[in-house]
Amino acid sequence: MSAGCACCRAGSPCTQSLNEVLFDASAARHASVGDRAALVAALARSPSAVRSDGTPANASGYTPLHYASRHGDVRCVEVCVSAGCEIEAVTRVGRATALHKAASGGRAEACEALLRAGANAMARDIDGETALFKAAVNGDLKCVLVLINAAKEAVRAKDGRGRMARDVAANDAVRDALDAAVAADVVDE
């Protein structure tokens, strides 16, 4: 292997792929790190970026809204919604919505913002899981309570393997909240 110049050795910035360089300048990246000002500017420069994961092929199906939701930045979520990001857009591999991404990360405030914008709390990913499943696995009680309040029927929903969210709960507090919601639902019937 030749030594080459210092700028082209592995680990230097010039070893980035074109997709990495393009992602670094994209609305998706700005949403992923909560840089609201840069996100607004990127979406103003390229309004079609609301449907892009920041790479030319858009292979992941992620949108800036998915990234903002996963990061949990409510202001960026609101910018994405206002710019026209599709609330129910799904990723290509897991068919996850932005609400699934927010719930997976225990981002209760982002879940609330998405629900206010019209997100479907009963949307299912490729495994048949709702956002409540994701929050239960994560173990974030606040996020679980937000999602229970948004869609009480989600507590009884079963995934593709026949499990309810309580069956995958990460901790007792989450399991207890889900059990209480099921019991309350029985009383309401």
Blueprint of the fold:
Layout (H helix, E strand, L loop, with lengths): L17 H7 L2 H6 L3 H10 L18 H8 L2 H10 L14 H7 L3 H9 L14 H8 L2 H10 L21 H17 L1
Helix pairs in contact: 3-5, 4-5, 4-6, 5-7, 6-7, 6-8, 7-9, 8-9, 9-10
How does this model look, in words?
49% of the residues lie in helices and 0% in strands. The chain is mainly alpha-helical and 189 residues long. The protein contains ten helices and no strands. It is elongated and about 55 Å long.
Total number of helical segments? 10
Instruction: Report the uncertain regions.
Output: none
Count every beta strand, where a strand is a DSSP E run of 2 or more residues.
0
Shape field: elongated
The portion of residues forming beta strands comes to: under 5%
What descriptive keywords fit this protein?
49% helix, mainly alpha, 10 helices, elongated, 189 residues
Write a brief caption for the model.
The protein has 189 residues and is mostly helical.
